[in-house]
Amino acid sequence: VQLVESGGGLVQAGGSLRLSCAASGSTFSFNVMGWYRQAPGKQRELVADITSGGGSTNYADSVKGRFTISLDNAKNTMYLQMNSLKPEDTAVYYCNALKYFSGSFYNFWGQGTQVTVSS
Hints:
Distance between the termini: 37 Å
Shape: globular
Largest sheet: 7 strands, mixed
Structural class: mainly beta
Order of helices and strands: EEEEEEEEEEE
Strand content: over 45%
């Protein structure tokens, strides 16, 4: 399984970006997909996740009301729409997919995409 992120970049505070995560296989095969981020000197943290079947979503308090996660199973692609961006949103954003198979959980990661928000 390969996950490839795109859509990162430099944006001014208050601006918007949309991240994409394209999976090499069917996103239906995953139990949960999500976006994580890691800022310099900080631990990687969950931004948002979504179940592949029911579309149930979960957000970090810091992004609620500003970010929206979505999943297009027909395109095997997950998205993160980020609005009202703040300098503290600056980080490398990673796509994650979790799969339960034959009694074990398997965790897959993308290579990351840099998001920089200037003040």
